């Protein structure tokens, strides 16, 4: 199941192949039954506030974490798009690293530059964060109820990968707009609504889902690594630290390291695919795209810039994921106690 999610290249393939995999995996893991039970609980049956708390708390905690760490995300995005040979502006290595990027953006563009695209990021977390965490915990509960004798680690990984892929595919338009606003910074002073309009006007509906394949892959990888590791570490630390803020802090830090290592190469590909249409229009190139897809982007990046280019922006990714996860999980755990 996880392999299917990682290999798909667009939203249509994602949904179609996931359904086929669900049918073929019934004897191993009744995932279709799990989805059916989870959805029926949330939509048709149990009108219980507790069923919706993971969604509400997940969305709120995601927005708070995003606001606190967004400058690092902008830094990561700028580092990931630089060094591409096809564009004179982006071909130049403007930033030598995370600290240099933070200093240059702050000096040249101010706080506004560091928070370019924050409106789209908040909208993204309101959809992606809400759906991902709520779906994960709902599916996990349904899976345990349906498959009580199953391997808990496998259940966690499959449920997390599904939740990450589904939520990211739905929220992809907000991610496209966020990336483009972060790359341009203050050069083009456009609002969230104007940016959405421009993408739709010049690229159509498909433009809003540009890069959905690697976006879903990245989200599936992050969720499949991050959420199970957090849950596992939290349980292991329970005897020593209890259900405390210290436990949540340690578990969040461990989870962020694993997800950063696993997801950065996919994130580089995703960012470049999302930004390529804007670059093509700006330079008035031919109608063909710079990259034909995820594999082509991967091959060209390695060919032109080397394998290490896949880990561009790793430091700000990790530095952002650490505080992001710590803020998120501590906020989430505190909301659960209300």
From TrEMBL:
GO terms for cellular component: mitochondrial inner membrane. It is a multi-pass membrane protein. Keywords: Membrane, Mitochondrion, Mitochondrion inner membrane, Repeat, Transmembrane, Transmembrane helix, Transport. Belongs to the mitochondrial carrier (TC 2.A.29) family. One of its GO terms (biological process) is transmembrane transport. Its main location: mitochondrion. It comes from the Eukaryota. It is found in: Mitochondrion inner membrane. InterPro entries: MCP, MCP_dom_sf, MCP_transmembrane, Mito_Metabolite_Transporter. SUPFAM superfamilies: Mitochondrial carrier. This is Kidney mitochondrial carrier protein 1. Solcar repeats lie at residues 53-142, 151-236, 243-338. PROSITE patterns: SOLCAR. Signal peptide: none annotated.
